[in-house]
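Attaching the record inline, Q. Sequence:
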Amino acid sequence: MADTQTLRGLDDVLSKLRALPPEIVSKRGGVVKSALRKGGKVIADAAVRNINAITTRPETEEGGYVSTGILAKSVAVSRDPKPQQAGANERYRVHLRKRTYPDGTRTIATGRYLEFGTAKRAPTPWLQPAYMETRQQALETVASELGKGIDRAIKKMSRGA
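Structure, as predicted:
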């Protein structure tokens, strides 16, 4: 389910971005990279809280299951190496890192089983609710961090000029 958000009301920020030299929003990402990462971190933190709530339920401990915490530690925010494929200039993803439990099960499989369920287990989503709950906060974080980063870059440029 692809749900995209458009930032509105950022005309002043966009005009500042256009006024900056291209090396500030370069291949390295510049202020845009930093702002998007912080927005992704807001969603990742909510996902970790959801995973911890699911894996520490009393009914899981009754069945002999004790959480190792590996799944929650596997939540990551990563820069997309090919954002153009999604029609973006810069993109970050909240996902699970590939890790293996002591019994050989992969964290990605466990995350999918929880999110979507199996033939024997009902779904207990953790990522979609995290996104839906925090998407506005993440957008606000991106917008504020973008504004701060642009102001810092402008100050730095004016000192060097």
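The CA atoms of residues 27 and 90 lie 9 Å apart. The chain has a mean pLDDT of 83.

More tomorrow.
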